[in-house]
Amino acid sequence: QLQLQESGPGLVKPSETLSLTCTVSGGSISSSNHYWGWIRQPPGKGLEWIGSIYYSGSTYYNPSLKSRVTISVDTSKSQFSLKVNSVTAADTAVYYCASLSRTGHWYFDLWGRGTLVTVSS
Amino acid sequence: QTVVTQEPSFSVSPGGTVTLTCGLSSGSVSTSYYPSWYQQTPGQAPRTLIYGTNTRSSGVPDRFSGSILGNRAALTITGAQADDESDYYCVLYMGSGIWVFGGGTKLTVL
Q1: pLDDT of residue A103
Q2: How far apart are the C-alpha atoms of B58 and A2, rounded to whole Å?
Q3: Residues of B numbered 3-32 whose beta carbons fall under 8 angstroms of chain A's beta carbons: which are they?
Q4: How far apart are CA A117 and CA A110, in angstroms?
Q5: Chain A nearest CA to B80, separation (Å)
Q6: What are phi and psi of A102, to 5 degrees?
Q7: Minimal Cα–Cα distance from A48 to chain B, Å?
Q8: Which of A107, B1, B61, B80 could pair with B36 in a Cys bridge, judged by C-beta atoms 3.0 to 4.6 Å apart?
Q9: Residue range A30-52: average pLDDT?
Q10: What does the mean pLDDT of chain A come to?
Q11: Are B77 and B18 in contact (CB under 8 A)?
């Protein structure tokens, strides 16, 4: 069964780059049935879609974050990654990776457990 | 950017029926937006409830149903139970690979 697991530093200094990786197991990251996405949730607030990537490398980003975000994929490692540049306290959030099903219907069908990233000096 | 709107909070009695909605700041929600719904309890990752407007995800009880009501997507819980007390989020596909989540509805069962 498909599983997703986020990993990366839990603490990032202001102005630096936040880097997270999501490892896909139990299925193929090169599946034509899925895109792969990042979603975040600041403490006590709602969900925000950050961006999505296909195994081919095609990417889509939230317009409000596009200038600071890069999502990449490494099919050999069955991983996709998120980088957010020039972080501030407003980037403090639980970051989730998720699979985005494209089999007829489009929806986020599976979520990782999430990882808390705190931006603080 | 288009805003996806949800009721901030709602309350339902045990055994009662409640309908949560998901709308647009401009325009009407249709099936073309692929509305889907997610349930989240504190400290947990979201759980997929409904996708493609009205299809229940695997293992989701049939007391949860999705629909289009007027110009909004809707999530109806029929026969609410105590463990339905959660935050509920909808997300809509805006085209060009862009997704927008609603602000979420905090549902209280009491």
Answers
A1: 87
A2: 14
A3: none
A4: 21
A5: 23
A6: -125, 30
A7: 6
A8: A107
A9: 97
A10: 97
A11: yes
